[in-house]
Amino acid sequence: MHSNDVKIEVSKYLGHLERENRSKNTIHSYETYLDMLTKIGADLFDPESVKEKIAKQGSWVENTKRMAAAVYKGFASFVGIAFRSPRYRINPKIPFIPSDAQIDALIAASPRRLAALLQLLKETGIRVGEGLSLKWSEIDFENRRFTLNNTEKGGIPRQKPISDKLAKTLGALPRKAEKLFGKANYKYMELGFLTVRKRLAVKLQDEKLNEIHFHTLRHWRATKEYSKTRSLPHVMELLGHKNLDSVMVYTHLVDTQTDEYHSAVAKTTEEARKLSEDGFEYVCTTPESIMLFRKRK
Question: Does domain 100-255 have CATH number 1.10.443.10?
Answer without folding.
Answer: yes
